[in-house]
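Here is a protein:
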Amino acid sequence: MYATAQELETRLGGGEALVILADRDGDGVADAELVERALTDATAEIDSYLAARYTLPLPTVPAVLVRLACDMAVYRITSEYGAGLTEERRQRYEDAVAWLRRAGSGDVSLGLPPQQAPAATLAAPGLVSGKPRAFDRLRRIM
């Protein structure tokens, strides 16, 4: 996961903001399952953009991905249930996707080494050895 529920809560400005977004049963507590699902979905979406360029899982989580995962999770929580979806939240989600597309294509960097191409594509063609040919175009054995 690129972000935790605690990081999401901190980025929203505290627990009350998360409760407002994710309290589905009205008990004054954010629905932990909803928050985890939104963070998991954000992680999967981020991975789908980064997998072409980076080996996953990443060795460290860059701070930019924590921010993007939180923005994407907030969008998912609010768009899934229609509560609290604002133009700003939608725009943050779209900005996150645009940035991830650029990261996946190599236009921006995470500061991590890119995935190496498989050795087979870089190696010279293989050589085959064996017995000499019994027949060839120029000589026929009778």
